[in-house]
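Quick start: read one record
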Amino acid sequence: MSHHRIFCDETLQTGLSLRLSDSAARHVQVLRLQPGSLIELFNGRGEAFTAHIELMGKHSVDITVTQALASVAKPSNHTHIVVGMPANERMDWLVEKATELGVSRITPVMSQRTVLRLNGERAARRVEHWQGIAQSACSQSGRNFLPQIDVPLLLNDFLNSYQTNDKSLNILLSLQAQAPAWRELWTLRPEHMTLLTGPEGGFTPQEEASALQHGFVAANLGPFVLRAETAALAVLAQLL
């Protein structure tokens, strides 16, 4: 029997009694669960347990952890998508779907053609918002590992700080790339893949040249022009 999955940012173990966070408690209350109901807790670090609701207060929920569950396997590939942020709800959608497809890390970057610009407190609030979307996506999909979501930064800053190694494959999705096609690189099945994809309008020729100088290989996804939020998902779907 499946139970409602609730994110709980705690180190979990059988027999532990605790009060859920405000956001988790609201989730339980919205579901209209009652004392005696069983739920499934996951902490985003691979652990999942069933738990018994002991007490429902007006703004609080107390539970007892009852049994460890077998964890859904972590994806065999570490996938890191670096994306020129699409505007508004499109980035929300990208975070949600990429999480469902098993992405390991998301780094939003700002390039010359990026519409959305974030920094300081506004950037921190947006990252918190995206983390909430990722938690919900994990809850829905059965995934027990939360992806890392970075604070947005300038494309040049990312490239200058990025470190690669022999086990990683670094791909720049580019409409200008004649070869190789993505399907050829896919057969390599690298342990670590970083995928760099542009915003609406793509990267400028100068930005693409800089990515190539920093160890990225330009590849294309075929003859069609995909939206900024779709390109990375097309690759993740094939890896899954």
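Helices lie at 22-30, 89-100, 120-141, 155-161, 182-186, 205-213, 228-239.
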